[in-house]
Write a structure and sequence with these properties.
The structure holds two protein chains of two kinds. Chain A is an alpha/beta fold. Chain A is built from 15 helices and eight strands. The radius of gyration of chain A is 20 Å and the shape is globular. The N and C termini of chain A lie far apart (43 Å). By secondary structure, chain B is an alpha+beta fold. Chain B has helices at 114-122, 129-171, 178-206; strands at 23-26, 34-37, 39-44, 47-53, 68-73, 82-94, 102-108. In chain B, helix 2 (129-171) packs antiparallel against helix 3. Classes of the chains: A alpha/beta, B alpha+beta. Chain A binds chain B through residues 160, 163-164, 167, 171, 206-207, 244-246, 249-250, 252-254, 256-257, 260-262, and chain B through 128-131, 133-134, 137-138, 141-142, 145, 204-207.
Chain lengths: 332, 207
């Protein structure tokens, strides 16, 4: 552990930007982003939190900032040239905050050039770790931010609705990634978005195995490229608000479905137990409860922070870059 | 196989594979049975939700609740046809304009096997295999708890029965058999303790 922590400079991490998404609202994305940020800061890391919820930003509220004087809105509207100039220093040492744009018509849907300008400057921010707290839903902009991040965390709670939304989020993000990657390939686009003779959409392709089979048959030249994309698409699963041992089965379910139907191999990062103290802290606009009466979630978050540091510094493993054949082919 | 109800519902939304081939039979053993062509709308943990469109004899639809039922599903591919006994636990009628409307029923099937579950799933119109896979795994993950509860209940029941038998033999029996009574009491106590242990483990897991 000490080896991981000592001597890291601002540019040592392989993965600097981590996105926290999950599809459903109210599962604690902002709270977990903040908790992870504080845990990383406690380990001596310089962290910047970005509120990526461009339509309903509230991370600043969790950090006790009621009236942010500068937000992403200023950057998107070019009132501020550099993203770095939108960083707000917070009560927690070593944590900078970039507030999300709020109540601005259209801010939730930045233009392509705004998005590129934002993404280009995120990686250049002066921090060892940048945590991007994404909003709820599966809007394209949100999926693009998620896909752009080298570190991707899908957060969910043990509720059935959250499990379903988390799977939907992963599937949408993956399909968005594939469609962007192959946007210039007409054959793949036709496979992804089949249309009838009248040009009406016939729905999505279904499972990734079906997609692979069709690509192999209709665009064999792109088959290896698609396999590599799938092999390189890494996500981490994190369950929040765990109340019982039975809840710990939920990430296993999600991983198994992703493996069987999306040809992905997500890693289960860990869990954060339900803690009413956090809820009370949020309601009283107090910062994450790390004080004397430490929250039940503090230790698991500290472990998760260590995991993030470790993962960020590891070189891409051989298994990660290995092209995997779909399950059906492996059986054949 | 005479049908009591019209077979006019088969055009359903989505890709209704085989949906018109599903037959629901309702009736008590030895009495008159009725058969309805039905569409499977939902499936969760052994509970199948069905729809019958434009049923003919509607007067006694409320009486269907609580009756035994059987679901017949034709084989798909090279598999076996499905024949699932169950019990109707909910019936609701929805009027639809000048038509006779729609009958919505829930049938409890107990615990269908994985193969049976798959066959049922394949007859849900417009089902998505990945979402189906998600809920199947969800159901499977929840099963051990209900199995443990059933084992715990049986263990407790056997334990109490043995304990009572032991006490009966020792006190009320015409010819007291102290050794036999003691054996019964000890075994019964072990059974009850086993149930307490299982319940405690279950509570520990759920906390």
């Amino acid at each position: 552990m000490k080896d991981i922590l000592k001597g890291e400079t601002l540019s040592d991490s392989r993965i600097k930007l981590w996105s926290i998404g999950g599809g459903k609202g109210g599962i604690g994305k902002s709270v977990i982003s903040l908790g992870l940020g504080i845990s990383l800061a406690h380990l001596g890391k310089k962290v910047i939190l970005i509120d990526g919820d461009l339509g309903g930003a509230n991370l600043h509220t969790l950090m006790g900032v009621r009236y942010p004087h500068v937000t992403l809105e200023h950057f998107l509207l070019k009132k501020v040239d550099r993203l770095e100039d939108t960083i707000i220093q917070t009560q927690v040492e070593d944590i900078g905050l970039i507030c999300g744009a709020n109540d601005l018509l259209g801010a939730a849907n930045p233009t392509y050039s705004q998005k590129i300008r934002l993404l280009n400057q995120i990686e250049a921010l002066p921090a060892q770790y940048i945590l991007l707290d994404l909003g709820a839903g599966t809007a394209f902009n949100l999926l693009d931010f998620f896909n752009y991040s080298p570190g991707r965390i899908v957060l969910f709670s043990p509720q059935t609705t959250s499990l379903q939304n988390a799977y939907g989020f992963i599937k949408s993000a993956l399909y968005r990634k594939i469609s962007r990657e192959f946007s210039k390939d007409e054959e793949i686009t036709n496979i992804l978005f089949p249309e009838d003779e009248k040009g009406e959409n016939l729905g999505d392709i279904g499972t990734v195995n079906e997609l692979l089979a069709q690509v192999k048959a209709r665009a064999p030249g792109q088959y290896d490229r698609l396999c590599r994309l799938l092999a390189d698409y890494h996500i981490h699963l994190l369950i929040n608000m765990v109340k019982s041992n039975a809840d710990l089965k939920v990430p296993e379910i999600l991983r198994s479905v992703c493996t069987d139907f999306l040809n992905l191999h997500p890693e289960i990062m860990g869990y954060v137990p339900y803690d009413p103290v956090i809820e009370a802290a949020v309601n009283s606009m107090k910062i994450f409860p790390w004080g004397e009466k430490k929250s039940k979630a503090a230790d698991p978050l500290a472990h998760l922070a260590l995991r993030i540091i470790k993962e960020s510094m590891l070189p891409p493993s051989a298994s990660q870059s290995q092209v995997e054949a779909p399950a059906e082919e492996a059986r054949a | 196989m005479p049908l009591d109800y019209q077979h006019s519902h088969s055009k359903t939304s989505g890709s209704s594979r085989h949906s018109s081939d599903v037959i629901l039979e309702i009736g008590r053993p030895g009495k008159e049975t009725r058969q309805f062509p039905a569409v499977i709308r939902n499936l969760r943990a052994g509970l199948v939700s069905l729809e019958v469109t434009n049923p003919r004899d509607l007067k006694e639809w409320k009486g269907l609740k609580g009756q035994g039922g059987r679901l017949y599903i034709p084989a798909n591919g090279g598999g076996e046809p499905g024949n699932f006994p169950g019990k109707v636990v909910r019936v609701r009628h929805f009027a639809r304009g000048r038509d006779k409307g729609l009958l919505s029923l829930d049938l409890v099937l107990g615990r269908p096997t994985a193969a049976a579950q798959e066959l049922l799933n394949e007859h849900i119109p417009g089902h998505q295999p990945d979402i189906q896979g998600l809920w199947e795994r969800w159901d499977q993950a929840r099963q051990p708890d209900s199995q443990r509860a059933a084992v715990s209940f049986r263990l407790g029941l056997v334990g109490v029965t043995l304990l009572l038998c032991g006490l009966f033999i020792n006190t009320v029996g015409a010819m007291p058999h102290p050794l036999l009574a003691l054996t019964f009491c000890l075994t019964g106590t072990l059974g009850v303790l086993g149930q307490i242990l299982l319940l405690w483990k279950g509570m520990k897991n759920s906390n």
